[in-house]
Each structure stands twice: as structure tokens, then as C-alpha cells.
């Protein structure tokens, strides 16, 4: 049984029916030091260090890291007809949604005061690195989610890295999604390669994509010199449900995520004790016939939880505290209930909206915030691949309006250089006017 305590404000309002055995947020202490070593070695020794870590962690000894044009095409040609059609269906849906999102991000020009012109431009990031997790299974949707929005955004170059032992179909997915370059490098060493650049791998401006604890920690440590989208992974799913929830359907969706990784966090938040107990029983029942039960059962035992809430208000408050990556709503009026929720990565409204549909092909991005980050950010989207950069220009009339306040404020702050710069345009114009009127 977990030693985790509910945060202040939830005492007496919620209780565990099934508590998590461990904390997914705290289970990273043994990762930090190793990631520091990997980043340092790759930064100092480049390809040689990548080769050593690829042999050590992936048992891969490659002559070259980059996937050649011929190998890219061979991977595409090797796809089964239906697999290719399904991949292209997903690519088109993700592209369509990203294009619609990009259409909402507009350049801006206003005249805030007479002669004072302010605005911003929407500028695609020049080079983006997309980490494509291989994991235990060939996640064919993974490259679509990180590469397609970058190409829609207009990035000059999207560089993809995926583990050297990733399924060949993953290379095909990267190619069909539009990756400009593809490298067989995985884990923290891939993040280091894209962040610092090596003899083979170009340095990128921003790194996007989910991964395991090592990838996540590497992204955290390189942030600054390069940008990152967010810390995404391991996966999470929570379901909020009232008495209308169906135990078998909820258990199915929880286990669908639990099979991702042994550190996946899954949970049910409900006001109905009967549903809570029935769902717990249903999870155990379905594990008996699930082919991936070895992974899912460990995830459920260590990080699974069922929380019983005193009322709807407590259920909403606790859900917002968790801020789950994937949040499913199984209530009597799901669309109305959804309006009351504010913290989540992506929201799945009604029992027809399975996380799996979004994971694969509906068009919304499956790279989402985890570990409570849904309290302050949303998931990966086309806007993650552009910069909103402001600009300004002033007519002579505007200088007369802003120079006085800027000069006085600078003087009040004791910043003489600022005061001089603020006054310089006014002084210059005054001197010019005096010379002309002599």
C-alpha cells in the first residue's frame, strides 16, 4: 500500500479504494546521475560516445547512424498495404487538424497610439528534433505526432531520432510523415546528440516528443541551450465517472494504457463505490486474458489507483489536482461535465471517446503533459513549432508620446544610460529643429 497522502484540502473528501504502490513522480532519482554522464560524454566525444551507449543500452553496433534514402524507401516498400493505408489515414488527420490550428495563429499589427506601431510575426523554428520512442512495441503513430505538425508549421528541417532496434515500420512512418533526416539513435544519447550536435547529427533548436524516464530527464537537463516541448512520459490515464460508468469499459481503457510501460500511471476517480469496486475486480479479470499482462499488471500494481470521492465537487477538484495526461469523462452528461474540468493534457468526452483513438489516428496529438504538468500547459501542437516574436516601430509623433514617460521612469530607477537613450531622440530632434530655425 502506498504511503502517499492526499494533499491539503482533500481530507475527508476522498479516499483510496485501490492506492498506488509507488509514486510515478518520485521514481526518477536513479536516473539523474546516469543521464548527466551520458550528456557530458556525448557533448565531449560526439559520435564515439553515441556508439558506445548504443552498444551498451541497445546492443546495436552501427556503421552509420543516419538512415539512407535507399533504406527509407525500402522500409516504406516493406509496409503491408493495410498498414500503409492506416498510417496515411492517420497522417492526413493529424495534418488536417494541425493546419486548422495553424490557421488560428495570425500575425498582428496595431497602431496602439498615433504613430506607435506594435505587432508580432509567426516564425517557424528553423530546425526541430523529434524523438520517436520505439519502446517495447512498434508505435507506428509516434512519428506522425511529432513530425507532421513541424512540417505543417513550416520548419526548415525536422530531424528524427529513434532507437536503433525500432521496428522497420517506424522508419517508414518517419519517412511518410516528412522527416528530413532520420537517425538510429535512442534514449538519452539521442537527446544529447540533437541538443549539442555531433559529427553525424546536426544541432537542433528545439526537441519534441515523449520517451521513457531517461529521455524525459535528458530533455530536462538540456533545456536552455535548446528548447523542449514539455516533459512527456511515462503515460497516464484517468477516468472520472459517476454511477453510470461501465466497469468493463473503464477497465479496458485503463489496461490499454497500462500495457505501454511498467511505469504507466492509471486511475479511476468516482463518486460511486459500487463502480470503484467493480472496476477493480474487472481489471483483475481482464488481466487474466491480456497478452501484455506482464507489463500492465506491474503498472497497475505499482501506479494504479481508484479514488472514491464524497461528491461531484470533490471529484472535479481531485481530477484537477491530478491533471492527468489523458482524462476520460464517463458521466451521465459528459459534455456538460467536461466544461467543469480545467487541468488535463487532452480530454476524452463520453464513453465513445477512447484514448486509443487519439493515440492512433483521429488527429489530435498524443504527445501530452504528464506528472501534473497539465496544470500549466497543454500538449504538443503546431504552435509548439513556431515562435511568436514581437516588433515595434515609431513615427516621430509617437516618440513625443513615449519619450517623456520612459525618460522619467529611467531617472526614477537610477538608470542614467536608460534615461539618456530615452531622451536622445527628443534631444536630437530638438537640436535639428533649432538649427533649421536659426
UniProtKB/TrEMBL annotation:
Keywords: Metal-binding, Oxidoreductase, Zinc
Record-linked InterPro entries: Ald_DH/histidinol_DH (IPR016161), Histidinol_DH_CS (IPR001692), Histidinol_DH_monofunct (IPR022695), Hstdl_DH (IPR012131)
Entry superkingdom: Bacteria
Annotated Pfam families: Histidinol_dh
Uppermost EC category: oxidoreductase
EC code(s) of this entry: 1.1.1.23
Protein's name in the database: Histidinol dehydrogenase
Organism: Terriglobus aquaticus
Lineage: Bacteria, Pseudomonadati, Acidobacteriota, Terriglobia, Terriglobales
Amino acid at each position: 500500500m502506498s504511503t502517499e497522502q492526499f494533499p491539503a484540502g482533500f481530507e475527508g473528501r476522498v479516499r483510496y479504494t485501490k492506492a498506488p504502490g509507488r509514486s510515478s513522480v518520485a521514481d526518477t532519482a536513479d536516473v539523474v546521475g546516469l543521464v548527466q554522464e551520458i550528456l557530458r560524454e556525448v557533448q565531449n566525444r560526439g559520435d564515439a560516445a553515441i556508439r558506445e551507449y548504443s552498444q551498451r543500452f541497445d546492443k546495436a553496433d552501427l556503421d552509420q547512424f543516419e538512415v539512407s534514402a535507399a533504406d527509407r524507401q525500402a522500409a516504406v516498400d516493406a509496409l503491408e498495404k493495410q498498414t500503409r493505408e492506416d498510417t496515411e489515414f492517420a497522417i492526413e488527420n493529424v495534418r488536417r487538424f494541425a493546419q486548422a490550428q495553424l490557421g488560428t495563429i495570425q500575425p498582428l499589427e496595431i497602431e496602439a497610439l498615433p504613430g506607435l506601431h506594435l505587432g508580432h510575426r509567426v516564425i517557424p523554428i528553423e530546425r526541430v528534433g523529434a524523438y520517436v520512442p520505439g519502446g517495447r512495441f512498434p508505435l507506428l503513430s509516434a512519428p506522425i505526432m511529432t513530425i507532421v505538425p513541424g512540417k505543417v508549421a513550416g520548419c526548415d528541417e525536422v530531424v528524427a531520432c529513434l532507437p536503433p532496434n525500432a521496428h522497420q515500420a517506424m522508419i517508414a512512418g518517419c519517412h511518410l510523415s516528412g522527416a528530413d533526416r532520420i537517425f538510429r539513435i535512442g534514449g538519452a544519447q539521442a537527446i544529447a546528440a540533437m541538443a549539442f550536435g555531433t559529427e553525424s547529427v546536426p544541432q537542433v533548436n528545439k526537441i519534441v516528443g515523449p520517451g521513457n524516464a531517461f529521455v524525459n530527464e535528458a530533455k530536462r537537463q538540456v533545456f536552455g541551450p535548446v528548447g523542449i516541448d514539455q516533459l512527456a512520459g511515462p503515460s497516464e490515464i484517468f477516468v472520472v465517472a459517476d454511477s453510470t460508468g461501465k466497469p468493463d469499459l473503464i477497465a479496458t481503457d485503463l489496461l490499454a494504457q497500462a500495457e505501454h510501460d511498467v511505469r504507466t500511471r492509471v486511475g479511476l476517480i468516482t463518486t460511486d463505490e459500487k463502480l470503484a469496486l467493480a472496476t477493480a475486480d474487472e481489471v483483475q479479470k481482464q488481466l487474466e486474458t491480456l497478452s501484455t499482462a506482464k507489463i500492465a499488471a506491474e503498472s497497475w500494481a505499482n501506479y494504479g489507483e481508484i479514488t472514491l470521492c464524497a461528491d461531484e465537487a470533490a471529484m472535479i477538484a481531485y481530477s484537477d489536482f491530478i491533471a492527468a495526461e489523458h482524462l476520460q469523462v464517463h458521466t451521465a452528461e459528459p459534455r456538460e461535465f467536461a466544461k467543469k474540468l480545467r487541468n488535463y493534457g487532452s480530454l476524452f468526452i463520453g464513453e465513445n471517446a477512447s484514448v486509443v483513438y487519439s493515440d492512433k489516428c483521429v488527429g489530435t496529438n498524443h504527445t501530452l503533459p504528464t506528472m501534473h504538468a497539465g496544470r500549466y500547459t497543454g500538449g504538443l501542437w503546431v504552435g509548439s513549432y513556431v515562435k511568436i516574436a514581437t516588433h515595434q516601430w515609431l513615427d516621430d509623433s509617437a516618440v513625443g508620446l513615449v519619450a517623456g514617460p520612459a525618460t522619467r521612469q529611467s531617472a526614477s530607477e537610477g538608470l542614467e544610460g536608460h534615461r539618456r537613450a530615452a531622451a536622445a531622440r527628443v534631444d536630437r530632434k530638438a537640436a535639428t529643429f533649432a538649427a533649421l530655425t536659426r
